[in-house]
Design a protein that fits this description.
This protein has 348 residues and is mainly α. The chain has one domain: Ferritin, CATH 1.20.1260. The chain has 15 helices and no strands.
């Protein structure tokens, strides 16, 4: 049975094939490996879970505010456009805005699934192949969870956002294995973690909070995987090669920052797109939201050694340089603990 009828517009318009070539690497030394990566692999095996069983899909969503988020989460909240809407129209905006964001999570997770399988083929070390294989399973589970949340509960899906599509295309078409790590494990996954956290910590609907908490438990390991692999590899590169990676990271961060304007939502709802985008782009709420989204990316970029003048200047201009010294290990432990607390509440 097709799920295309859930989309606000035909998803075929955003369908595309990613051209590219890369080497598939076999490894005949099976015993080498970093203890940190092998430990992460062991953790990845032990923490596998079933989205059909662990998540309580019997919980319903509120049709007027599916995830029960505060209205401040709606990016046009406080504008003249928002203030003129009726109660019914505001409920529709909430539903569409939340579905749009979750749709980008869904499509991003499919991108991560494909990237993780590419990593298994590309990486030159067996310890990384081991862990990346567990991530393939993780990402398939995330696609399943967000797909079910959108198709069964929201009954509304948006196609992939143009900026996310462009970034995924750049990552998947690059033949260098470390660029797959940098683009997906560090940048896309890092941004996703911060966005998931905002929903996990503010959604009053337990189903919405559960899905994001459990996905975050896995994603924290994925970012750690990128940190461990690249932290070892990047010191081996020339300054020119590191500069190329920094340039890519800067461009990707600006691209991701600008993908939250949600033009597709305003157009779908018949609202004045230019006015909505102008308000969103200039609003204090959006500036704070964008800033928080980089709370995991900035310290990771610093940790892996891409910390030249250009990237520091870009993060200063974006107002996110203050996240450079965030304790990533503490955040990862917190994500694990929150997921366990959700499990404990279900058994009380």
């Amino acid at each position: 049975m097709s799920t295309y009828d859930r989309y606000v517009c035909a998803p075929e318009e955003t369908q595309w094939d990613v051209p590219g070539t890369f080497d598939t690497t076999f490894r005949w030394e099976y015993e080498d490996g970093l203890d940190s990566l092998l430990d992460l692999y062991a953790k990845g095996k032990n923490l596998q879970w079933d989205a059909a069983r662990r998540i309580d899909w019997s919980i319903d969503l509120d049709p007027e505010n599916p995830q029960q988020l505060p209205d401040e989460a709606v990016s046009i909240y406080g504008s003249d456009i928002w203030n003129r809407l009726t109660k019914k129209e505001k409920a529709n905006v909430r539903r569409h805005a939340q579905a749009w964001q979750l749709s980008q999570f869904l499509h991003g997770e499919q991108g991560a699934l494909i990237c993780a399988s590419k990593v298994v083929q590309q990486v030159p070390r067996m310890d990384a192949k081991y862990y990346a294989a567990t991530q393939v399973v993780d990402e398939a589970r995330h696609v399943e969870a967000y797909s079910r949340l959108l198709h069964e509960k929201f009954e509304l899906v948006y196609p992939i956002n143009p900026q996310l599509k462009r970034l995924l295309n750049d990552v998947l078409s690059d033949s260098r294995w470390d660029m797959t790590y940098l683009g997906m494990q560090v940048l896309i996954e890092g941004l996703a973690l911060a966005a998931f956290q905002l929903i996990r910590d503010s959604a009053k609907n337990p189903l919405a909070a559960q899905v994001n908490a459990y996905v975050m438990q896995d994603e924290a390991r994925h970012v750690a995987f990128g940190r461990i692999a690249l932290r070892e590899y990047y010191p081996q590169l020339t300054q020119k090669e590191r500069d190329e990676r920094e340039e890519f990271a800067v461009e990707a961060c600006y691209l991701m920052r600008d993908r939250f304007l949600a033009e597709e939502v305003w157009e779908s709802l018949g609202l004045p797109v230019e006015k909505c985008v102008g308000y969103v782009d200039a609003s204090q709420n959006m500036r704070e939201f964008r800033s928080r989204l980089f709370s995991r990316i900035v310290p990771t970029i610093k940790d892996i050694g891409l910390w030249g003048p250009k990237i520091r200047r870009a993060y200063s201009n974006m107002g996110v340089i203050g996240f450079a010294d965030v304790d990533l290990d503490a955040l990862m432990k917190h994500d694990q603990r929150v997921a366990e607390e959700f499990d404990a509440r279900k058994t009380d």
